[in-house]
Design a protein that fits this description.
four-stranded antiparallel sheet, alpha+beta, globular, about 300 residues
């Protein structure tokens, strides 16, 4: 058994600003009309855009970011292994939107993993690879030379490195959502999620699954997989998403073999930070055979994504 702690967070401030900017733009157009009736229609449309964008961001930011995934891995006792990262030389092989979107997510997870273990030069190299993917997708200025320079200037400051990476990842997703490229954004996030799962399952290797904290963290991804599938289902009309959805549904079949029993959630406030944590006890039931199957599927999907 283990305790699951979930911090209660406010919504993305950047996301709110983007939504407000879009809504303000719609209202400004409406204000040019002399008819009050026309203004009312435009305001309603603006509110709908605001709600739609906020709803999209809620779903997207419900998934652990590549940085959060790396933190989970390290907190569970994971050790750094650079051989598990997608080789930088592969960056030149990705030319389609599907390849670039998937590997923007993958390189972002690799970047976060390397940064968390103080692999500063590797982190900068992977930021360059992520920049190449972002440029190919037309994510303007999401990762520019200024970002790279900031990384190089803060190679000995882990906190600042984490801030830069977090800002960059949020900026990329926000740009895609703002420009109605939700399908591409979902592919980016799935790429990062799969990379985190792949690294975690490979780090466990043939170790026993019982009383293994890293295995527990992996099993918890059963919950986030539901969000992954929801994102893909909402964009399944996109041919690139359709093929990915099929693989993720197959992965779900293995996760469905894992049983998680969770007790009632109890709110507990940390007296020092004043942050409210929702705590519950969970018990997982997973066999070595099921874990081996999960690890193999994660590896096959990741291989397909990085080819």
């Amino acid at each position: 058994m283990w305790l699951r702690n979930i911090s209660v967070k406010t919504g993305s401030f950047l996301g709110l600003l983007l939504a407000l900017a879009m809504m303000t733009g719609c209202r400004s157009e409406g204000s040019k009309n002399t008819s009050n009736e026309q203004n009312t229609v435009d305001l309603t449309a603006g509110d709908e855009i605001f709600e739609d964008l906020n709803e999209a961001k809620k779903v997207f930011y419900s998934l652990p970011s590549p940085l959060e995934t790396a933190v989970l891995l390290k907190s569970a006792g994971a050790k750094y292994n650079e051989s598990l990262l997608n080789p930088l030389s592969n960056a030149n092989n990705y030319t389609t939107n599907r390849q670039m979107a998937l590997n923007l997510g993958i390189f972002s997870t690799d970047l976060s993993f390397a940064s968390l273990f103080d692999q500063t030069q590797t982190s900068i190299n992977y930021m360059q690879a992520a920049k190449k993917m972002a440029d190919g997708l037309g994510i303007l200025d999401a990762i520019d030379q200024t970002t790279i320079d900031r990384l190089e200037e803060n190679v000995n400051n882990r906190d600042e490195l984490m801030n830069i990476i977090s800002e960059t990842l949020m900026s990329s997703n926000s740009f895609l959502l703002e420009n109605e490229r939700k399908a591409v954004a979902s592919i980016v996030l799935v790429g990062g999620w799969v990379e985190g799962l792949y690294i975690a399952t490979q780090l466990v290797g043939k170790s026993p699954v019982k009383e293994n904290k890293l295995v527990e963290r992996i099993v918890e991804q059963k919950f986030s997989l539901e969000i992954v599938l929801r994102l893909l289902e909402e964009n399944k009309d996109n041919p690139d998403v359709e093929s990915i959805l099929e693989q993720m549904n197959d992965l779900k079949k293995t996760f469905d073999k894992i049983t998680i029993k969770t007790s009632a959630i109890t709110p507990v406030e940390d007296p020092k930070t004043k942050v409210t944590l929702l705590k519950s006890k969970s018990e997982i039931q997973i066999t070595q055979e099921i874990f081996d199957e999960l690890r193999e599927k994660a590896k096959n999907i990741r291989t397909n994504f990085t080819l």
